[in-house]
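Tokens for chain A. Residues wanted.
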């Protein structure tokens, strides 16, 4: 694993925590759907199609398409897999924040497509993190992190050098997602769908901070 800037590590853990919050709120809500990854959703779609449950199948198709649309938006905004200051990471995070804010009143009105909005937000976030980390980090699901953790431990047991940085990154992302899930569960019990305002505020704040930092660096360069 090549060295990553410290802000990539911090961003990966923070965004994995927000994804954990978003996912658990979607699951605990009236739709009962996870939204941050598509493996289980695709399996459930197969079950719904086999049983002829077309309403449920339509809802699941909506989640899959929404996540993909979010990833497509990220690809269109960022346009490159190289980590570079001028990329539109702030725009992507601001758009994610906006989607989460909009979803809250829609959830309260029990509009089914509120889940599609937060799935789109997760697709946008995951694609952005994949882009800026060079496909090293996925922040909205932890299957890859557990897989890499197991690979590294297996290689170490065979006498190969332990990839310490990679192990730490996997552990931190997994811990962030788990911590976000715990916090999201507590907040949902207290505030219901208003709990989504926390991940919305976090992503919006990170986006604004990125805008400010980019502006600061550009001002120093052109002095």
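Reply:
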């Amino acid at each position: 694993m090549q060295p990553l800037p410290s802000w990539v590590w911090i961003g990966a853990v923070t965004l994995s925590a927000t994804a954990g919050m978003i996912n658990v709120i979607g699951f605990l809500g009236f739709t009962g759907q996870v939204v941050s990854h598509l493996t289980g959703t695709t399996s459930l779609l197969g079950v719904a199609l086999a049983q002829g449950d077309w309403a449920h199948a339509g809802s699941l198709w909506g989640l899959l398409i929404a996540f993909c649309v979010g990833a497509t938006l990220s690809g269109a905004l960022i346009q490159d897999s190289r980590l570079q200051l001028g990329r539109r990471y702030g725009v992507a995070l601001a758009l994610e924040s906006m989607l989460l804010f909009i979803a809250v009143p829609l959830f309260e009105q029990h509009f089914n497509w509120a889940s599609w909005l937060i799935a789109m937000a997760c697709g946008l976030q995951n694609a952005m993190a994949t882009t800026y980390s060079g496909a090293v980090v996925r922040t909205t699901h932890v299957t890859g992190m557990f897989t890499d953790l197991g690979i590294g431990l297996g290689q170490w047991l065979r006498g190969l050098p332990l990839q310490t940085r990679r192990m730490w990154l996997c552990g931190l992302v997994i811990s962030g997602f788990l911590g976000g899930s715990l916090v999201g569960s507590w907040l949902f019990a207290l505030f219901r769908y208003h709990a989504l305002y926390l991940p919305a505020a976090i992503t919006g704040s990170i986006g604004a901070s990125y805008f400010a930092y980019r502006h600061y660096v550009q001002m120093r360069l052109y002095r």
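The mean pLDDT is 88. Helices lie at 6-28, 39-51, 54-78, 89-108, 114-132, 143-157, 164-191, 197-221.
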